[in-house]
Amino acid sequence: MKLVNIGFGNMVSAGRIIAIAGQESAPIKRVIQLAREGGSLIDATYGRKTKAVIIMDSGHVVLSALQPEALALRLDQDREREKEEEKKEEAESEYE
């Protein structure tokens, strides 16, 4: 299971993320409100302004103080690192 840092040392499972969105639109604000009422909202902003809303496959909604672009970049970097590790492992197994 790969984890991605969503700010302030908080992590979520990278493989369970469905979407990362900004919090400006009315539909996303409704999603946040419904999650709050349903008890499935996780606020990881540490009191700072919410900048990204992470929708998980479990139905949980996670709030982050990081920009959605920053979170997407972290996910991409993790995926690139995984690909490099796989290539390295394949190359090592070919020589064995």
Write out key terms for the chains shown.
27% strand; 2 helices; elongated; two-stranded antiparallel ribbon; 96 residues
Give the number of DSSP strands: 6
Strand percentage lies at 25-35%
Task: Flag low-confidence runs.
Answer: none
With helices defined by DSSP (H or I, 4 residues minimum), what is the helix count? 2
Helical percent range? 40-55%
What value does the Rg take, in angstroms?
16 Å
* Biggest beta sheet attributes: 4 strands, mixed
H and E string: EEEHEEEH
Structural class: alpha+beta
- For the record, give the distance between the C-alpha atoms at the N and C termini, rounded to a whole number: 27 Å
Mean pLDDT: 93
Q: How would you describe the shape? A: elongated
Largest sheet strand order = 3-5-6-4
Could you outline the blueprint of secondary structure elements for this entry?
Elements: E1 3-7, E2 10-13, E3 17-21, H1 26-38, E4 41-43, E5 52-56, E6 61-64, H2 68-95
Parallel strand pairs: 4-6
Antiparallel strand pairs: 1-2, 3-5, 5-6
Offer a quick outline of the entry.
With 96 residues, this protein is of the alpha+beta class.
Structure description:
43% of the residues lie in helices and 27% in strands. The protein contains two helices and six strands. A four-stranded mixed sheet has the order 3-5-6-4. The protein has a two-stranded antiparallel ribbon with strand order 1-2. A hairpin with a 4-residue loop joins strand 5 and strand 6. It is elongated, with a radius of gyration of 16 Å. The mean pLDDT is 93.
